[in-house]
Design goal:
single chain, alpha/beta, Ribulose 1,5 Bisphosphate Carboxylase/Oxygenase, Rossmann fold, 5-stranded mixed β-sheet, 3-stranded parallel β-sheet, 9 helices, 10 strands
């Protein structure tokens, strides 16, 4: 891949093979950033699974101590008493048929969708629109539930989901470059602990194999995950 001039300049002298401490890595990520906007600080984790096997899927969630720095808009598909619960919990949009019509027309201005189990038969018609984007309410991750208030509050306060891709890599956003290093460190630790606890029973050997931090446009910096998890 041909890289831009600014990227090549930032990468000059950077040892990709070197494994840094978390403090060193965060300092490097901040120092090497060159974009004019407040970039996200992202992490890519190579995990010890066979991604082609269904019993080795890595899936979980974590409430980051300091959030991601991004606006979180939550919609709720519900009716009856659950509409009031969702509203009181801070949901941004609540409805059912009207909300479905809006999404079918192309509206996608939200990050999470929650539904009560009794309306999933109706919400299922949005599978083609929401499924590929990972937005379809899912019982496995807690977004299909009658406890609407709790899940909405968790999502608004910073609960984020993660899942491995086809290459056995978990991609995750940890916060913004403008965050204080101490806040980013706490977010990193919270995420890696949650990831470690999501190791599938069928996964053998070392689970967290390589952890790379970077800003949105910046270069990757490897960290020692064992030290972080101590």
């Amino acid at each position: 891949m041909k890289r831009g001039k600014k990227y090549r300049s930032a990468a000059e002298g950077h040892l990709k093979s070197k494994v840094f401490s978390l403090d060193e890595a965060l300092s490097t990520v901040k120092a090497k950033a060159y974009a004019k906007f407040d970039e996200s600080v992202d992490v890519d984790v190579n995990v010890g699974i066979d991604a082609s096997k269904g019993d080795q899927v890595v899936r979980g969630s974590v409430v980051l101590p300091h959030g991601t720095g991004k606006r979180t808009r939550v919609i709720v598909f519900a009716k009856g008493e659950y509409v009031d619960q969702a509203e009181k919990a801070g949901a941004d949009y609540i409805g059912l048929e009207d909300l479905i019509d809006k999404i079918e027309a192309g509206w996608m201005d939200f990050e999470y969708a929650v539904a009560t189990p009794d309306v999933m038969g109706t919400v299922g018609k949005l599978a083609k629109q929401l499924g590929p984007r990972g937005l379809l309410p899912n019982k496995k991750v807690g977004t299909v539930t009658f406890d609407v208030a709790s899940i909405v509050k968790e999502l608004k306060s910073g609960r984020v989901f993660f899942k491995n891709d086809k290459s056995a890599v978990v991609h995750f956003s940890l916060g913004k470059l403008s965050f204080e290093p101490s806040k980013l460190k706490e977010n990193v630790r919270a995420f890696l602990k949650a990831l470690a606890s999501s190791k599938p029973a069928a996964s053998k050997g070392k689970f967290i194999r390589k952890v790379t931090l970077s800003s949105t446009m910046g270069i990757g910096t490897c960290i020692n995950s064992d030290d972080v998890l101590k």
